[in-house]
Amino acid sequence: ASPGTRQPLDRLLDDMTWNEQGLMPAIAQQHDSGEVLMMAWMNRASLEETLETGRVCYWSRSRNRPWRKGESSGQQQQLIEARLDCDGDTLLLLVDQLGAACHTGRRHCFYTRLTREQGEVISAPLVDPETLYGASQ
Amino acid sequence: ASPGTRQPLDRLLDDMTWNEQGLMPAIAQQHDSGEVLMMAWMNRASLEETLETGRVCYWSRSRNRPWRKGESSGQQQQLIEARLDCDGDTLLLLVDQLGAACHTGRRHCFYTRLTREQGEVISAPLVDPETLYGASQ
Questions:
Q1: ipTM score here?
Q2: What is chain A's mean pLDDT, rounded?
Q3: Does residue A5 sit in helix, strand or coil?
Q4: Whose CA, among A81, A117, A129, B60, lies 20 to 30 Å from A12?
Q5: How many Cβ contacts (< 8 angstroms) between chains A and B?
Q6: What class has domain B22-133?
């Protein structure tokens, strides 16, 4: 398809490849710096909500419910642009991330560097997770 | 864990969360420009090979075999750095991509922009896929 080719969203949503659980991986990238912040999952309803509201909503596999990013931590993601890949089975979300994307209090989740010998932690939290989630976490 | 904390690779590989098929999503990002190129899957053996050789090897779910990126198209990915996320279930690969990462001949796979009304193709192939894979594709 050449640039400018358009399709109604409903038809695209029907044609996307959702997995057995009705989910698709969604990569969140900070729109200006290019940092890859995290990867989480979306179902059709959470993608539709995200496109409607402009605030990123994932599907939490552990809690089995919609997960409006930042709902407990305050570290929200504003959607700048959503993109679908060639196979229709992965999303890239360009976002504006408030504070720390990672539940450890780090800016992003990819903080362990792997080599052929070892893994090494390469970044420190920006904030104490207890201040984000309370001392129970 | 604070910056500088290290673990042997074997132990990390044992502790990672591979899915029911023994796979993990791997996001490829161009190391210098920050472009997110594609998302594919790795198993333990393909990650180990990638770290050993410095050339990215995925696991092809459709062909059910190792997929050394560029083996038929010539569009190889050289590994610059591999990173694991906080949950141990997603990889970020900083790579140097030769030519087009996408099988459509585009630089990257995320070329359909989604809005609440529609999807729109926003980039054109760099190369004709027939020159990458032959006219049979």
A1: 0.95
A2: 95
A3: coil
A4: B60
A5: 152
A6: alpha beta
Taking the domains of chain A in order of start, what are their residue ranges? 9-99
Of B25, B102, B117, the CB nearest to A9: B117
Residue A62 CA to chain centroid, in angstroms?
A: 15
Going edge to edge, which strands form the sheet with B77-84?
A: B6-8, A118-121, A112-114, B77-84, B91-97, B24-30, B36-42
Rounded to an integer, the average pLDDT of B20-24 is 96
Q: Which residue of B has its CA nearest to A105?
A: B86
Q: Which residue of B102, B112, B122, B137 is the best one to mutate when testing the A interface, meaning the one whose CB has the most A CBs within 10 A? A: B112
Model confidence over B113-129: pLDDT tens digits? Answer: 999 999 999 999 999 98
B112 vs A86: CA distance, rounded Å: 8
Chain A residue with CA closest to B24: the answer is: A25
Average pLDDT over residues B65-69: 97
* CA separation for the pair A130, B24 (Å, rounded): 29
Residue A137: what pLDDT? Answer: 40
Q: Which CATH number fits domain A9-99: 1.20.1740.10, 3.40.190.10, 1.10.10.10, 3.10.20.810?
A: 3.10.20.810
- A13-29: average pLDDT: 97
Q: Encoding tokens for residue B42?
A: 């790795």
For residues B3 and A81, give the distance between their C-alpha atoms in angstroms, rounded to a whole number. Answer: 32
